């Protein structure tokens, strides 16, 4: 195993302010470089119930995959009105999760899929333990799940942020990746954003999440197998191939975004850094600065495809903590089931039951449409580095 984690280089223009919520959960405020907020933060004076017990993982003996049974999540808030938004700053009438006004806030999920325990007698015990197949196998779902609030506003998404605020969120992703990767029992860290009711979001508030898993996820295990079969230059070769083709939608000094050769979804865009970096913690300040601009342009372009906002999942795939760090590169994958203005692609028999995908649009057509939409979005609302943190 290779666990040579990078030393995280923080942007000192983005202040961090650490606190605890009333039940002991960690809360971190990240202040924009151009923040108008003062340094003081209110104390969380709520009286809260004890946190639910850590969930239990069960193994599917047919696939070897592990399923976390987190029953406490069944009662989480579902599409509340603005006056009861649990991610808004607390007010006299709204005892929300965040005591003070903020730019970006990160806190431990009250009802996580993994955690709050990081260590337990029956926690996963490495690759060999998890890979063994048996009936009725269980493990404790140790780990950490965090909520990343992009803004104090009730509505919006990453694409509606300013460049400065986008840069602050990216800084939070990088710092939390470094911190979570160093915790005991953590095997992989995954930042992501679910956007839109068609995706299944339960809160309109602009936010994302970070999962710190106690195992390497099935998708990444398949990727490790692909690298083992192809060789360690897989990501570099994919990037070079896409940069030479017609599916590139955005390219900067440090990042390239493209529709992949074998796209599954009607809207699917991947983005790779130009150099090998295993996760956000290893990115440079210059890479994060450029990403704040390019990522906003990409998401605003995807929204400009149609007259209404596009539902999507934005998934930041990162190398595991202990394996594949020299081979697996940080990669964004944005996917949307939207195949027309008023139509969604549903995963029916072939995709859902057999994992055998059928594409509705050629990747080349999709890339051309997204490039055109980015041009329209750039013309309507230019995104520049002005206001970024460095």
UniProtKB/TrEMBL annotation:
GO terms for cellular component: cytoplasm. Pathway: Carbohydrate metabolism; galactose metabolism. Its cofactor is Zn(2+). Keywords: Carbohydrate metabolism, Galactose metabolism, Metal-binding, Nucleotidyltransferase, Transferase, Zinc. The active site is at 207 (tele-ump-histidine intermediate). It catalyses: alpha-D-galactose 1-phosphate + UDP-alpha-D-glucose = alpha-D-glucose 1-phosphate + UDP-alpha-D-galactose. This is Galactose-1-phosphate uridylyltransferase. InterPro entries: GalP_UDPtransf1, GalP_UDPtransf1_His-AS, GalP_Utransf_C, GalP_Utransf_N, HIT-like_sf. The keyword Transport does not apply. GO terms for molecular function: UDP-glucose:hexose-1-phosphate uridylyltransferase activity; zinc ion binding. Belongs to the galactose-1-phosphate uridylyltransferase type 1 family. Residues 59-216 form the Galactose-1-phosphate uridyl transferase N-terminal domain. GO terms for biological process: galactose catabolic process via UDP-galactose, Leloir pathway. Its EC number is 2.7.7.12. Residues 233-371 form the Galactose-1-phosphate uridyl transferase C-terminal domain.
């Amino acid at each position: 195993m290779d666990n040579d984690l990078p030393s995280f280089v923080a942007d000192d223009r983005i202040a961090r302010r650490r606190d605890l919520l009333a039940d002991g959960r960690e809360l971190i405020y990240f202040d924009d470089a151009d923040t108008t907020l003062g340094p003081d933060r209110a104390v969380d004076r709520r009286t809260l119930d004890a946190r639910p017990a850590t969930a239990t993982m069960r193994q599917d003996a047919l696939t070897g995959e592990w399923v976390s049974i987190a029953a406490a999540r069944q009662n989480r808030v579902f599409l509340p009105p603005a006056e009861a938004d649990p991610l808004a700053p607390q007010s006299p009438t709204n005892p929300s999760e965040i005591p003070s006004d903020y730019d970006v806030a990160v806190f431990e999920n009250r009802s996580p899929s993994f955690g709050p325990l990081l260590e337990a007698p029956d926690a996963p015990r490495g690759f060999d333990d998890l890979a063994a197949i048996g009936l009725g196998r269980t493990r404790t779902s140790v780990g950490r799940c965090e909520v990343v609030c992009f803004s104090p506003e009730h509505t919006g998404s990453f694409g509606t942020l300013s460049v400065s605020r986008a840069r602050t969120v990216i800084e939070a992703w990088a710092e939390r990746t470094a911190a979570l990767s160093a915790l005991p029992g953590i095997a992989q860290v995954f930042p992501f954003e679910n956007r839109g009711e068609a995706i299944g979001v339960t809160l309109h508030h602009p936010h994302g999440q970070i999962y710190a898993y106690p195992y390497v996820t099935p998708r990444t295990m398949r990727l490790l197998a692909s690298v083992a079969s192809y060789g360690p230059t897989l990501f570099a070769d994919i990037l070079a191939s896409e940069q030479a083709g017609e599916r590139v939608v955005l390219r900067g000094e440090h990042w390239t975004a493209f529709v992949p050769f074998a796209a599954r979804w009607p809207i699917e865009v991947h983005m790779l850094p130009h150099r090998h970096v295993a996760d956000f913690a290893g990115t440079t300040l210059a890479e994060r600065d450029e990403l704040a601009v390019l990522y906003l342009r990409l998401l605003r372009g995807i929204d400009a495809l149609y007259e209404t906002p596009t539902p999507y999942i934005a998934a930041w795939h990162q190398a595991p903590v202990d394996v594949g760090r020299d081979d697996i590169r940080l990669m964004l994958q944005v996917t949307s089931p939207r195949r027309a203005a008023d139509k969604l692609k549903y995963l029916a028999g072939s995709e859902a039951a057999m994992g055998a995908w059928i594409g509705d649009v050629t990747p080349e057509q999709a890339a051309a449409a997204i490039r055109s939409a980015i041009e329209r979005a750039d013309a309507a609302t230019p995104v520049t580095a002005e206001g970024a943190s460095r």
